Amino acid sequence: MTNVNVTPVDASPLGSVSNAGWRTGVFNAQTKAAQNDTLTVSDAKKVLFAVVQVDATGASETNTVATNVITLTSATTGTVSGIVVYY
């Protein structure tokens, strides 16, 4: 299992009373070498959710999120990109 640190580029801050501090970020072309590789969102305390796709096919990459770590659960390898909502 490989862990990659990612720092998303902020796409948009979310700034109302109920979600102050939450941000939407984008990350590109992260290498996934094996099932259950992880992406650690470096500047996040908590990831609410992640939408990840396999770059070569555009297919969704199944994932789970715990704190600021995204686990890529499929057996597919290659590069992945995605969107995260985090604070």
Poorly predicted regions are: none
Total DSSP helices: 0
Oligomer: single chain
What is the total domain count? 1
The geometry reads as globular
Helix content: under 10%
The proportion of residues in beta strands is over 45%
Radius of gyration: 13 Å
Structural class from helices and strands? mainly beta
State the end-to-end distance.
Answer: 26 Å
For the secondary structure, the number of strands is 8
Mean pLDDT metric: 90
Structure report:
The chain is built from no helices and eight strands. It has 87 residues and is mainly β. Strands 1-4-7-6 form a four-stranded mixed β-sheet, with no helix packed on it. Strands 2-3-8-5 form a four-stranded antiparallel β-sheet, with no helix packed on it. The chain is globular. The N and C termini lie far apart (26 Å).
